[in-house]
Amino acid sequence: MVILVQTGLKKVVIWKKPKNLNQTEWEELDEKSLPSVKLCLANTTLQEVLMDKTLSTLWKMLETLYATKSLANCLVLKQRLFTFRMNECELLKNHISQLITF
């Protein structure tokens, strides 16, 4: 989100087209914002949303993959939590930040 704010593309994430923009300008903003979001994704996540052509479809796909509280999603998160281990040479600060980004 920070990258979109910095580049002036935040309004595309809100999905409310301003009245002063026509459809072609709105589509251009969407085209510019889509790669910015894709660059922030991990490779495994990127493979799931690679074929999405608009930011709204990409965002909806990410929500269905990661924001749903389905049983399968809960089980995956529990498995990741229970198998999460700290490496010997890893800093505690880095280990905690990895845990937070689950």
Nutshell version of this structure?
By secondary structure, the chain is mainly alpha-helical. It is built from seven helices and no strands. The chain starts with a helix and ends with a helix.
Biggest pleated-sheet summary: none
Number of DSSP-assigned strands: 0
Summed up, the helix count is 7
Low-confidence stretches: none
Radius of gyration: 17 Å
Assembly context of the chains = single chain
Shape: elongated
What fraction of the residues are assigned to beta strands by DSSP?
A: under 5%
Pfam families: Retrotran_gag_2
What can you see in these coordinates?
With 102 residues, the protein is mainly α. The protein folds into two domains: 1-68, no CATH class; 69-102, no CATH class. Helix content is 67%, strand content 0%. It is built from seven helices and no strands. It has helices at residues 2-6, 10-14, 23-39, 43-49, 55-67, 71-82, 92-100. The longest helix has 17 residues, at 23-39. The protein is elongated. The model has no long low-confidence stretch (mean pLDDT 79). It holds the Pfam family Retrotran_gag_2.
What labels describe this entry?
single chain, 102 residues, mainly alpha, 2 domains
Helix and strand arrangement:
Blueprint: H1 2-6, H2 10-14, H3 23-39, H4 43-49, H5 55-67, H6 71-82, H7 92-100
